[in-house]
């Protein structure tokens, strides 16, 4: 798990700027926000991933499931997410999901069944799709070219547990990780819903007020600027790949 | 769940034209053609070159001049040839229009033998057209599949079309919903490459869901008209809401009925279909699509059928009987036969039938029968049989049949109506019955119809009657005839069809007595009914109202206008019809001074009238100084007053003024209390005649006239103290409205009662110039003894000011207070004051 903000921020800066323009993003903020909400709502359900993992690892027997609880600090809490500015929130989300992808790649080794692997592949594709929407949403936010915003750390989202763990501990750790992942997605969905409420409120006043408000929050929350090195990369110079 | 993604083009285009060259090879070719496998665009120019080999040229003793070209075995004109050099000759085609050309290079050897040197096939065509009508469908199937996406951040592998489906391509990727993807098609052939427009969409909006599965149908014992469908939705419902089409039909029907779509517009797992027939098998199918209508309908589900629950039979079975003689004396064998109910009437499986037999005045007997016929021995009496069908739910209504007595014989009578019913009896039961009425012989009715009026109008009358009872008809009533006449007129006859029971007589005379009767006719004759009389009214309904109401309205309107006119012109009317008559009881003589007739002394007390009848009041207060001349501004004010009186004739210019005690409180009067207190003996002989209106009516004017006479007028003139008393009473009663009066300084009552007061009636058209001059002169005289500023003139004084509280001492000066009311209301009118002032008041 990353413990310093700088590597993640650097990676995110690279990520957002280096996303190759494969296709154009939708410029419809409400539509994109709706897609993000629905994705988050869908991905929070444990039957999309955790249940599969528990079943495939045999953790659904003998009360082992009771030990599958989120490890505190593995994922940002809901309160922490709500405190972030929109831009930082998106970066945090993108970073965390990148780490989840890496972790899923590691978990694949423990899944023997081809059918389960296929399902896991679908989950990974969904996460990539979610990251795609995050990228598009970041472009819609005011000041999208700014790259100096720091990203808070994702305390416990390390790509893989320490290698010294035995198989059982590793499986249990994977289960806890996925438990946290679903809880995290639920929190993300709630944050996006708040964005939606803010949008509906701002629509009553001006169409872009919600965005501007988000931008103001972003400006105010740059207390860790020193942690974020200024990165000026030409778009497309790097193929985005979340680091961890 | 995985998905397939397919796109296609609807029009046929040159999608791929793959070249396939053909070269006419010789074992030892004498030369070759360049280019060897040309693909040429239609309409363009093309040049081919044939090059001979040296070895061949030497062998055949030929060169390029010997070359000739053929296309599809036809020699090309030499005009198209070009000899390039000794070994090479070219041919040029302009505007190639054929898609496939076989081109050969030939030489003529030995002057007569044509040899083919080389051959090629020219393929011509067009570059690919831009693929259009690009569409995507996301097949949400229960198979392993994947999706072909281009998103903002990732590019997925291309999908290659297959030769047999060149306008569609299916890619296999897992579906990613709620992410926009971008799709386009690239078409390429030897002549070029084109790209379609890009389409951008969320795959969730292109979903064609798999149909609902495990559709099952169940019925309800409580309701025989419903069936409940249940199904399992496609797993896509985890992502999107669904709406449905549900269709159903009976098993033997070919057309489907559909549940209203608005009833199935959201995700659900079951649906109850209503209004179905009982005990009927229905077939159902269902399909779904995205709730908002985006995407595609799924295929129809597999059909499922169900049978509605039973209901009680809706109809009784038809039945008949056969009578056979019995071996037992006094009995007969009766066989009851009936038909099975059709399914739509049976509403279920008929379990058995229940037969009841009832003999005349005997109790009912029940029998349960499982067959459709039943034989029973009964007596020769008359019986009534009933039959009901029973199923699981209940029994049908009963069919009733009368089995006549055995000794029934047909003694048919004349003039009697008989109902003849014929029921065919088939092998499987009775058929439908037919009935007819018949008479053995008809006769005229024994009684005529009784006619009466239903409604009588001014010129018409509606007659009505009852059908004759069957017993008196004696035949078929063919028609009716209505006869009507007046007392003096001829009788008129009207024929009416027998089906009618009502007829309207028109063109009647109003206010006339009519006599009407009616006859009914059979084929054998008619019979008159009783005569009926009625009288047409003089006026039609509403006619009287139509006359009276406008007249009343006109009268009311006229009256109203008259009242309004009188109200508006009341002054004029009052002036001409009941002019104001002075009330002698209100007469006053303020002062009488025969010695100084020209001088006018205005005593305010003289102008105080207790009856409050004066509405328009002008008030002038003049405080004169005896020993001083009036200030010019005072005289000017008087002039103004005069002018104002002239110009504002008929209008009130002020409010009844203050009493003598008003000097003790603030007043709008400009009178200076101190100065007025010195108002003394500037007496003016003056008499007033005051009237209070005719018969207690409010006088429109107050007449104030100056008396020129030196002769004493009335007792009151002789008794000034009485006059003074009235003044004091007036002053003490504060219920007067506006009054015109003169204000007098009370401190000068005893000694100087003459205070300059002047009032003017509304009806006095103008101030007498002479009077005014006198007035001014008098004021001048009066003002002499007083200092300047003691004479004031005021006009507007409020009632409150005028009749405000008085000092106690002043009230005590009167023996009676409120006498005014007694004088005005109860006491006979008198010219003399009825209250004697203590201390008296002596005119000077």
TrEMBL record, chain A:
<feature type="compositionally biased region" description="Low complexity">
    <location>
        <begin position="142"/>
        <end position="159"/>
    </location>
</feature>
<dbReference type="GO" id="GO:0008284">
    <property type="term" value="P:positive regulation of cell population proliferation"/>
</dbReference>
<keyword id="KW-0732">Signal</keyword>
<dbReference type="GO" id="GO:0046888">
    <property type="term" value="P:negative regulation of hormone secretion"/>
</dbReference>
<dbReference type="GO" id="GO:0050729">
    <property type="term" value="P:positive regulation of inflammatory response"/>
</dbReference>
<dbReference type="GO" id="GO:0032740">
    <property type="term" value="P:positive regulation of interleukin-17 production"/>
</dbReference>
<dbReference type="GO" id="GO:0008083">
    <property type="term" value="F:growth factor activity"/>
</dbReference>
<dbReference type="Pfam" id="PF01291">
    <property type="entry name" value="LIF_OSM"/>
</dbReference>
<dbReference type="GO" id="GO:0005125">
    <property type="term" value="F:cytokine activity"/>
</dbReference>
<dbReference type="GO" id="GO:0051897">
    <property type="term" value="P:positive regulation of phosphatidylinositol 3-kinase/protein kinase B signal transduction"/>
</dbReference>
<dbReference type="GO" id="GO:0043410">
    <property type="term" value="P:positive regulation of MAPK cascade"/>
</dbReference>
<dbReference type="InterPro" id="IPR001581">
    <property type="entry name" value="Leukemia_IF/oncostatin"/>
</dbReference>
<dbReference type="GO" id="GO:0038165">
    <property type="term" value="P:oncostatin-M-mediated signaling pathway"/>
</dbReference>
<dbReference type="GO" id="GO:0045944">
    <property type="term" value="P:positive regulation of transcription by RNA polymerase II"/>
</dbReference>
<dbReference type="GO" id="GO:0005147">
    <property type="term" value="F:oncostatin-M receptor binding"/>
</dbReference>
<feature type="signal peptide">
    <location>
        <begin position="1"/>
        <end position="25"/>
    </location>
</feature>
<dbReference type="InterPro" id="IPR009079">
    <property type="entry name" value="4_helix_cytokine-like_core"/>
</dbReference>
<keyword id="KW-0964">Secreted</keyword>
<dbReference type="GO" id="GO:0006955">
    <property type="term" value="P:immune response"/>
</dbReference>
<feature type="region of interest" description="Disordered">
    <location>
        <begin position="220"/>
        <end position="244"/>
    </location>
</feature>
<keyword id="KW-0202">Cytokine</keyword>
<protein>
    <submittedName>
        <fullName>Oncostatin M</fullName>
    </submittedName>
</protein>
Automatic annotation (TrEMBL), chain B:
<keyword id="KW-0325">Glycoprotein</keyword>
<keyword id="KW-1133">Transmembrane helix</keyword>
<keyword id="KW-0812">Transmembrane</keyword>
<dbReference type="Pfam" id="PF00041">
    <property type="entry name" value="fn3"/>
</dbReference>
<feature type="domain" description="Fibronectin type-III">
    <location>
        <begin position="211"/>
        <end position="311"/>
    </location>
</feature>
<keyword id="KW-0472">Membrane</keyword>
<dbReference type="Pfam" id="PF06328">
    <property type="entry name" value="Lep_receptor_Ig"/>
</dbReference>
<comment type="similarity">
    <text>Belongs to the type I cytokine receptor family. Type 2 subfamily.</text>
</comment>
<keyword id="KW-0677">Repeat</keyword>
<dbReference type="InterPro" id="IPR013783">
    <property type="entry name" value="Ig-like_fold"/>
</dbReference>
<dbReference type="GO" id="GO:0004896">
    <property type="term" value="F:cytokine receptor activity"/>
</dbReference>
<dbReference type="GO" id="GO:0009897">
    <property type="term" value="C:external side of plasma membrane"/>
</dbReference>
<feature type="compositionally biased region" description="Low complexity">
    <location>
        <begin position="658"/>
        <end position="671"/>
    </location>
</feature>
<dbReference type="InterPro" id="IPR036116">
    <property type="entry name" value="FN3_sf"/>
</dbReference>
<dbReference type="GO" id="GO:0043235">
    <property type="term" value="C:receptor complex"/>
</dbReference>
<feature type="domain" description="Fibronectin type-III">
    <location>
        <begin position="444"/>
        <end position="539"/>
    </location>
</feature>
<feature type="region of interest" description="Disordered">
    <location>
        <begin position="648"/>
        <end position="683"/>
    </location>
</feature>
<protein>
    <submittedName>
        <fullName>Interleukin 6 cytokine family signal transducer</fullName>
    </submittedName>
</protein>
<dbReference type="InterPro" id="IPR050379">
    <property type="entry name" value="Type-I_Cytokine_Rcpt"/>
</dbReference>
<dbReference type="InterPro" id="IPR003961">
    <property type="entry name" value="FN3_dom"/>
</dbReference>
<keyword id="KW-0732">Signal</keyword>
<feature type="transmembrane region" description="Helical">
    <location>
        <begin position="547"/>
        <end position="567"/>
    </location>
</feature>
């Amino acid at each position: 798990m990353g413990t310093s903000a700088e590597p993640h921020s650097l990676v995110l800066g690279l990520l957002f700027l280096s996303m190759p323009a494969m296709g154009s993003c939708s410029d419809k903020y409400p539509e994109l926000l709706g897609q993000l909400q629905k994705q988050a709502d869908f991905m929070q359900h444990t039957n999309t991933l955790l249940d599969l993992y528990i079943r495939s690892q045999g953790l659904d027997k003998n009360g082992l499931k009771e030990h599958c609880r989120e490890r505190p600090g593995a994922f940002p809490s809901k309160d922490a997410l709500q405190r972030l500015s929109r831009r930082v929130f998106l970066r945090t989300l993108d970073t965390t999901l990148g780490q989840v992808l890496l972790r899923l790649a590691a978990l694949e080794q423990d899944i023997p069944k081809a059918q389960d692997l296929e399902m896991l592949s679908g989950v990974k594709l969904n996460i990539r799709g979610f990251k795609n929407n995050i990228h598009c949403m970041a472009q819609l936010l005011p000041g999208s070219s700014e790259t100096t915003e720091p990203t808070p750390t994702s305390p416990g989202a390390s790509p893989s547990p320490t290698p010294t763990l035995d198989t059982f501990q590793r499986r249990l750790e994977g289960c806890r990780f996925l438990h946290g992942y679903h809880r995290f997605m639920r929190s993300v969905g709630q944050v996006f819903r708040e964005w939606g409420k803010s949008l509906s409120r701002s629509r009553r006043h001006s169409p872009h007020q919600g965005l501007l408000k988000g931008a103001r929050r972003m400006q105010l929350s740059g207390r860790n600027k020193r942690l974020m090195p200024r990165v000026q990369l030409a778009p497309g110079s790097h193929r985005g790949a979340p680091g961890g | 769940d995985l998905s397939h993604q397919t796109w296609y083009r609807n029009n046929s285009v040159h999608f791929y034209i793959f070249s396939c060259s053909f070269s006419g090879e010789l074992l030892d070719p004498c030369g070759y053609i360049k280019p060897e496998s040309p693909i040429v665009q239609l309409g363009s120019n093309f040049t081919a070159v044939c090059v001979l080999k040296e070895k061949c040229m030497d062998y055949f003793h030929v060169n390029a001049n010997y070359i000739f070209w053929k296309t599809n075995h036809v020699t090309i004109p030499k005009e198209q040839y070009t000899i390039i050099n000794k070994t090479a000759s070219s041919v040029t085609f302009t505007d190639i229009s054929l898609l496939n050309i076989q081109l050969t290079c030939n030489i003529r050897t030995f002057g007569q033998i044509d040899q083919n040197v080389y051959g090629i096939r020219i393929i011509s065509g067009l570059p690919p057209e831009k693929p259009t009508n690009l569409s995507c469908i996301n097949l949400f199937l229960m198979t392993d599949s994947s999706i072909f996406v281009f998103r903002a951040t990732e590019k997925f592998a291309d999908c290659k079309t297959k030769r047999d489906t060149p306008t569609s391509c299916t890619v296999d990727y897992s579906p990613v919903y709620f992410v926009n993807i971008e799709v386009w098609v690239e078409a390429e052939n030897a002549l070029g490459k084109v790209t379609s427009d890009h389409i951008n969409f969320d795959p969730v909006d292109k979903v064609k869901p798999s149909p609902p599965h495990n559709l099952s149908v169940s019925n309800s014992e409580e309701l025989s008209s419903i069936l409940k469908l249940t199904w399992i939705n496609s797993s896509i419902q985890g992502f999107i809401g669904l709406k449905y089409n549900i269709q159903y039909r009976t098993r033997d029907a070919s057309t489907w009925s559909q549940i209203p779509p608005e009833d199935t517009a959201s995700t659900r797992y079951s649906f109850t279909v209503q209004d179905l027939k009982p005990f009927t098998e229905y077939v159902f199918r269902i399909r779904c699509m995205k709730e908002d209508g985006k995407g595609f309908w799924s295929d129809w589900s597999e059909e499922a059928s169900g049978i509605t629950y039973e209901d009680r039979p809706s109809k009784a079975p038809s039945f008949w009987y056969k009578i056979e003689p019995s071996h037992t004396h006094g009995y007969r064998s009766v066989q009851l036969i009936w038909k099975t109910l059709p399914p739509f009437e049976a509403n279920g499986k008929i379990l058995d039938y229940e037969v009841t037999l009832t003999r005349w005045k005997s109790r009912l007997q029940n029998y349960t029968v499982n067959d459709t016929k039943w034989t029973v021995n009964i007596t020769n009496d008359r019986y009534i049989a009933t039959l009901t069908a029973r199923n699981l739910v209940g029994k049908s209504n009963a069919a009733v049949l009368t089995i006549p007595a055995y000794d029934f014989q047909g003694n048919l009578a004349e003039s009697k109506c008989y109902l003849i019913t014929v029921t065919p009896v088939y092998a499987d039961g009775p058929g439908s019955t037919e009935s007819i009425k018949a008479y053995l012989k008809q006769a005229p009715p024994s009684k005529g119809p009784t006619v009466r009026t239903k409604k009588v109008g001014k010129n018409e009358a509606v007659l009505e009657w009852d059908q004759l009872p069957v017993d008196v008809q004696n035949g078929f009533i063919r028609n009716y005839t209505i006869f009507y006449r007046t007392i003096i007129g001829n009788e008129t006859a009207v024929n009416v069809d027998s089906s009618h029971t009502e007829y309207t007589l028109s063109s009647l005379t109003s206010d006339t007595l009519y006599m009407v009767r009616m006859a009914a006719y059979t084929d054998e004759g008619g019979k008159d009914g009783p005569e009926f009389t009625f009288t047409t009214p003089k006026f039609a309904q509403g006619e009287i109202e139509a006359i009276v109401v406008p007249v009343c309205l006109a009268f009311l309107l006229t009256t109203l206008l008259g009242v309004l006119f009188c109200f508006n012109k009341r002054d004029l009317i009052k002036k001409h019809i009941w002019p104001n008559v002075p009330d002698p009881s209100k007469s006053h003589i303020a002062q009488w001074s025969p010695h100084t007739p020209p001088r006018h002394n205005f005593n305010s007390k003289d102008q105080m009238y207790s009856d409050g009848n004066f509405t328009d009041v002008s008030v002038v207060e003049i405080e004169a100084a005896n020993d001083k001349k009036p200030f010019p501004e005072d005289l000017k004010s008087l002039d103004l007053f005069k002018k104002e009186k002239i110009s504002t004739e008929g209008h009130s210019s002020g409010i009844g003024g203050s009493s003598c005690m008003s000097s003790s409180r603030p007043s709008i009067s400009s009178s200076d209390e101190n100065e007025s207190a010195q108002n003394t003996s500037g007496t003016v002989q003056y008499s007033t005649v005051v009237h209070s209106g005719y018969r207690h009516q409010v006088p429109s004017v107050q007449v104030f006239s100056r008396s020129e006479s030196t002769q004493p007028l009335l007792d009151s003139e002789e008794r000034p103290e009485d006059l003074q008393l009235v003044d004091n009473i007036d002053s003490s009663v504060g219920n007067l409205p506006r009054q015109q009066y003169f204000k007098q300084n009370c401190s000068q009552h005893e000694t100087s009662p003459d205070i300059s007061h002047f009032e003017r009636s509304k009806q006095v058209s103008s101030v007498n110039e002479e009077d005014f001059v006198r007035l001014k002169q008098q004021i001048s005289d009066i003002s002499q003894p007083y200092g300047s500023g003691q004479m004031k003139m005021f006009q507007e004084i409020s009632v409150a000011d005028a009749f405000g509280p008085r000092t106690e001492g002043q009230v005590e000066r009167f023996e009676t207070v409120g006498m005014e009311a007694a004088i005005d209301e109860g006491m006979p009118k008198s010219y003399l004051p009825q209250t004697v002032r203590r201390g008296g008041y002596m005119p000077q």
